Amino acid sequence: MNFLQGIAASNGIAIAKAYRLVEPDLSFEKRSVNDATEEINRFQSALSISKAELEAIRDKANAELGADKAAIFEAHLLVLSDPELISPIEDKIKSDSVNAEFALKEVADMFIMMFEQMDNEYMKERAADIRDVTKRVLAHLLNVQIVNPSMISEEAIIVAEDLTPSDTAQLNRNFVLGFTTDIGGRTSHSAIMARSMEIPAVVGTKSATEDIQNGDLVIVDGLKGEVHINPSAETVESYKKVQVEYEEQKAEWAKLVNEKTVTADGEHVELAANIGTPKDLEGVVNNGGEAVGLYRTEFLYMGRDQLPTEDEQFESYKAVLEGMDGKPVVVRTLDIGGDKELPYLDLPKEMNPFLGFRAIRLCLEEQGIFRTQLRALLRASSYGNLKIMFPMIATLDEFRSAKAILEDEKEKLVADGISVSDQIELGIMVEIPSTAVLADQFAKEVDFFSIGTNDLIQYTMAADRMNQRVSYLYQPYNPSILRLVKMVIDAAHKEGKWAGMCGEMAGDETAIPLLLGLGLDEFSMSATSILKARSQILHLSKVKMKELADKALQMSTTEEVMEAVKAAVK
Q: Is 90 exceeded by the pLDDT of residue 338?
């Protein structure tokens, strides 16, 4: 097959060779060896290659990600040099006359099991280190390539079943031109990261990893959701023209970078950006963002083997606040759980993690983690226009508890003579239907709402947004969703508060006219969507969009709403 249809997750066209980010097959059979010395030499050779690779990865991580990330690989190198691990493997090859693969796995599994059974958290982490490094050595013994996205050094398109947030964070923007996955949707974290990195992506193809081999020439069409495998020269040429046209369109949008976002009838709305790290600020500034509407702080906690310190967090928050030069920055407190895991927290596996122990629920129980983050945020607050937002709030009691902890930490800092801003607004993400329905009561106590439609839609429609078989139920224009959004906006305005949206719906060109008509004050989206959205809003009348929204609220189906939007904005 030379063509796959998927979901257009991030705009643009990418043309490059495929790099398969797929777990290798490391299966082997136990066998007897006649020459133990030769087998030990083979094992030592695999060790040497593994060490050289890890040293290169460590140096690259140190240069690009910092010493804390590089420390993980330093620990891995220590494991590979540890005689307590290496000697028993060599002894087993000699005494049992077995192949190196079998000896390696037998000894490594014994140590892994021993460390995992210990109560000491540090020792449990060593089990993970041993598992990682022995997998690398085993791969070299089997002559199988170990994939490592951070070490890609030529232009490529990533092909994977899915990409975890930590995988995506390791991608080198200079070489990774785009990616395609078997699973996922527009709201999966891999898709969101692709948009923030400004690389084209097509997700949910179902069979990319089966149909695409390493080195195949691939075209990722992030505009139509198509993937072409080993296309003809004519197809490549036609796509190069589309690439040029798209770049010309982006150049037109770029002329609006310093303009305000004003409707055709003179009403201003705020276009903000969703970010994951301070490095994303460049994209916000280059795309004319008027604020940061969502700073996803969980990326500070990922891709490492321990919690970030208060000072590390403070520096990150300070960098973003200073970088925005007085413009609003909405920081979401730690939102871990669901598809975002922290291995070093060792949380229990859950039957349904999206409805489980996550976000504010975790923070209210693990208060040490929560208080450290809040102190870092409060210390940073005097360096800019900070707004703090709690995620996954289901009840007023949760909001009040989180606010009380924040106030407690603020009092302690002030008592210690540390400067804290008195202008911090405190809001919540509205992503649970119960909160949207009770928005009139929440609005009396919060300073703002930010509607997280990615989760609000999946919870309202009872459809996992990561599940391909029910992806048809991810319906942002469904009248039920629009009614919930209206409830939240109206409740905020009644109390003189503002309402924003930080879900992917905020940057959706079909949704924007409806949201404008519903009275949304702030639209927060991937930075790369801002200029396109600004261009669209400049041509929309808020009065006419209100008429459209009022009609849509009375409709029965998503299809009716979409047709109404097309007719109103053609």
A: no
Candidate list 76, 140, 228, 502, residue with the active-site label? 502
pTM of the entire structure? 0.75
Catalytic residue among 76, 140, 189, 228: 189
383 φψ region: left (φ > 0), alpha (ψ -120 to 50), beta (else): alpha
Ranges 125-129, 135-139, 244-248, 370-374: which has the least confidence: 125-129
- 141, 47 in Cβ contact below 8 A? no
- Interval 250-309: pLDDT, tens: 999 999 999 999 999 999 999 999 998 898 899 899 999 999 999 999 988 887 778 999
| Helix then strand then coil, % of the chain, to nearest 5 | 55, 15, 30
Whether 140 sits among the annotated catalytic residues: the reply is no
Written as six digits, the tokens of 386 are 């900070």
Token readout for 468 is: 């391909």
- The CA-CA-CA angle for residues 531, 228, 6, to 5°, reads 60
Helix (H) / strand (E) containing 219: strand 217-221
Start-end of H helices in 324-452: 360-365, 367-380, 396-415, 433-437, 439-442
Comparing C-alpha atoms, which of 238, 361, 376 is closest to residue 300? 376
Task: Give the C-alpha distances (Å, rounded to integers) separating 550 from 171, 408, 510.
Answer: 44, 44, 16
List, in sequence order, the alpha helices (H) in 385-527. 396-415, 433-437, 439-442, 453-460, 479-494, 511-518
How much of the chain exceeds pLDDT 70, in percent?
Answer: 95
- By the 10 Å C-beta count (0-12 exposed, 13-18 middle, 19+ buried), 96 is classed as middle
Classified by CATH at the fold level, domain 255-569 comes out as TIM Barrel (3.20.20)
Beta bridge partner(s), residue 277: none
- The answer to whether residue 189 is catalytic is yes
Segments making up each domain of the chain, as ranges = 3-23+148-251, 36-141, 255-569
CATH superfamily name and code, 36-141: PtsI, HPr-binding domain (1.10.274.10)
204 by DSSP, 3-state: which?
coil
Which residue, among 121, 116, 118, 91, has the nearest Cα to 106 in the 3D structure? 91
**Which residues are paired to 312 by β-bridges?**
none
